[in-house]
Write a structure and sequence with these properties.
The structure holds two protein chains of two kinds. Chain A is an alpha/beta fold. Helices cover 30% and strands 25% of the residues of chain A. The chains are: A alpha/beta, B mainly alpha.
């Protein structure tokens, strides 16, 4: 019995068509949103241990995508391979495909520095540079050689991060004098200053009080008009409040019970994940039965 | 009656005695160390304070103890420290950056380099003197017995100290700063040059000053590379003959003193001047550390 050779239907966007992100239009598209990231069987390992295995889902443009799940499920590891921050860890190794606007981020000709220009990141603990507020924002545009008035770039970034009114009179003071919540918004402003396409947030509120957290969530809701956001969070309510799509991760033990590997259980609209999940494990987690 | 219910009394005599003996022993060691240092200092002050004046600093050494001063050696030391600093800052900092930021610690050659640097810091200074003599004064580089050779020899001697201090300063900059910078699209070099290095400067500067204050007291390697013992002119450049303060002090002590020409007070005054310079350098180091050190 001979198998007929069938043409694989080309579902992906043509790689060559991937347009430079600098001139992308800032309009929210209607209808099904264009995917900005397409993950195909992504496995990230440290040494020979897989931290997260066989992840496949698409991340849409101008949406907030939340990655949730228990500790050690590899969600931080996964988000760090979206802007190649894992390259900084010598033992880290990515298999599978991470497509960004259809282009393989791990292709040999792709420069990690170029990737990070377009895909910004905000970290768990606010990490302002030991410099003035102004210099914190201006650092990115300066190293990238951006043209234009630095004062305007800084003001615009701080405006976008809803920080301008609080700090406009003390731009020259050290960023270490700000509160934790302000520092984190400064880090968001710093990321916005280089006009990225995507902002990755790795548990941005885990070190913050509820009021500061509320401000950052509000900020994220506004930012998704212009940016695509991926957020890792431990806080399920946060994912439910801010995100459009949610990926639920879990930890699997291998047969020996020694190696813990993260897997995606379910990826869907946030509303569905939290009200009508299709997997019992997701339901147990989001209703607080396990966690 | 169980142990818990006994009244809480004094510890047994034997336990208290042991405690006391140990404490007394520690105090004795401390007193010995501080006491000897104090005796040396007092001795130097008593002998030398009378000589330590402007004349001493502005005169050259002489056969006549009355007229002798330390000017040539003082300027020799200043020149040596300058050459030494010029050499150790770029080379030491660059090495520290390579080892801390670029070197892959899983590679054997990087571990060998690291081990070597730790060991080099413990090599006796006379060995560096011989190295300087064989490679800088004579041999392939053939500079002659000049300031440049002396300064570079001292530089080689304290280079491991600078590298180790530099690495510690770089390591004290948290990885989150590097991540924050790289996440904005900065290259590794931009991250190091604009974020990591500025944050590490106070620590590096402290290390450099401490290294120089080790170099300033070194005598043996300078004797080997040919510092002159009697010189009555200031250095005129890198290719000038030279002497240095420890050598001048050594030379005065080794002269035969008599009632007419007593050189011992000169040596004591030289020691005092050297100690004052050392204290000054170390206070700058402490001030730098307190003033500019970044709290993360």
């Amino acid at each position: 019995m001979a198998e007929p050779v069938t043409e694989q239907p080309e579902v992906r966007v043509d790689v060559s068509r991937a347009e430079p992100t600098t001139e992308r239009e800032r309009i929210t598209p209607k209808g099904p949103r264009e995917p900005i990231f397409q993950l195909e069987d992504v496995t990230v390992s440290y040494g020979d241990k897989a931290a997260v295995r066989k992840v496949t889902f698409d991340i849409a443009r101008n949406e907030i995508t939340a990655l949730i799940g228990p500790s050690g499920c590899g969600k931080s590891t996964l988000i760090r391979c979206l802007n190649r921050m894992n390259d900084l860890i010598p033992t880290a190794h990515v298999e599978g495909k991470v497509l960004y606007h259809g282009q393989d981020l791990y292709a040999s000709e792709v420069d990690a520095v170029e990737v990070r220009k377009r895909i910004g990141m905000v970290f768990q603990k606010p990490n302002p540079f030991p410099k003035s507020i102004f210099d914190n924002i201006a650092f990115g545009p300066r190293v990238l050689g951006m043209k234009g008035s630095m004062d305007e770039i800084v003001e615009q970034a701080l405006q976008q991060a809803a920080l301008w009114d609080e700090v406009k009179d003390r731009l020259k003071t050290n960023a270490f004098g700000m509160s934790g919540g302000q520092q984190q918004r400064l880090c968001i402003a710093r990321a916005l200053a280089v006009s990225p396409d995507v902002i990755l947030m790795d548990e941005p509120c885990s070190a913050l009080d509820p009021i500061s957290t509320g401000k950052i969530e509000e900020l994220m809701m506004g930012l998704k008009q212009n940016y695509s956001i991926v957020i890792v969070t431990h806080n399920m309510q946060q994912a439910a409040r801010v995100s459009d799509k949610t990926a639920f991760f879990t930890v699997e033990l291998d047969e020996s019970g020694k190696t813990r590997t993260g897997r995606v259980v379910e990826f869907d609209d946030t509303e569905k994940i939290f009200t009508n999940p299709s997997d019992p494990r997701t339901e147990a987690y989001v209703t607080g039965k396990v966690g | 009656m169980s142990a818990h219910q006994e009244a809480i009394g004094r510890r047994s005599g034997a336990r208290r005695a042991k405690d006391l003996v140990f404490m007394v022993a520690l105090w004795a060691c401390l007193a010995l160390a501080m006491g000897l240092l104090a005796i040396l200092l007092v001795d130097a002050v008593v002998d030398g304070a009378g000589e330590l004046d402007l004349d001493f600093i502005t005169s050259f050494t002489s056969i006549s103890a009355d007229k002798a001063g330390i000017q040539a050696a003082l300027w020799g030391t200043v020149w040596l420290m300058g050459v030494c600093a010029f050499f150790i800052v770029p080379v030491g900092v660059a090495t520290a950056i390579y080892l801390e930021e670029y070197a892959d610690q899983t590679r054997w050659w990087n571990r060998v380099i690291e081990l070597n640097i730790q060991n080099l810091a413990a090599v006796p200074s006379i060995v560096y003197g011989i190295l300087g003599l064989a490679f800088l004064v004579r041999g392939p580089i053939d500079l002659g017995q000049v300031i440049l050779a002396g300064g570079l020899t001292l530089g080689l001697l304290v280079l491991p100290m600078v590298i180790i201090a530099g690495r510690e300063a770089l390591r004290a900059v948290p990885p989150s700063i590097r991540e924050g910078s790289m996440a904005l699209g900065a290259t590794q070099w931009q991250t190091i040059w604009r974020q990591v290095l500025p944050a590490a400067v106070p620590g590096i500067a402290t290390g450099v000053i401490l290294a120089l204050s080790r170099a300033i007291g070194e005598t043996a390697p300078l004797i080997v590379v040919g510092a002159a013992t009697v010189i009555t002119f200031n250095p005129s450049g890198l290719d000038s003959d030279f002497t240095a303060m420890p050598i001048q002090i050594f030379e005065w002590i080794s002269r035969a003193s008599n009632d007419v020409n007593n050189y011992k007070p000169l040596a004591a005054a030289g020691i005092l001047l050297l100690i004052i310079m050392l204290l000054f350098m170390n206070s700058i180091a402490i001030w730098l550390r307190n003033r500019y050190e970044q709290k993360w």
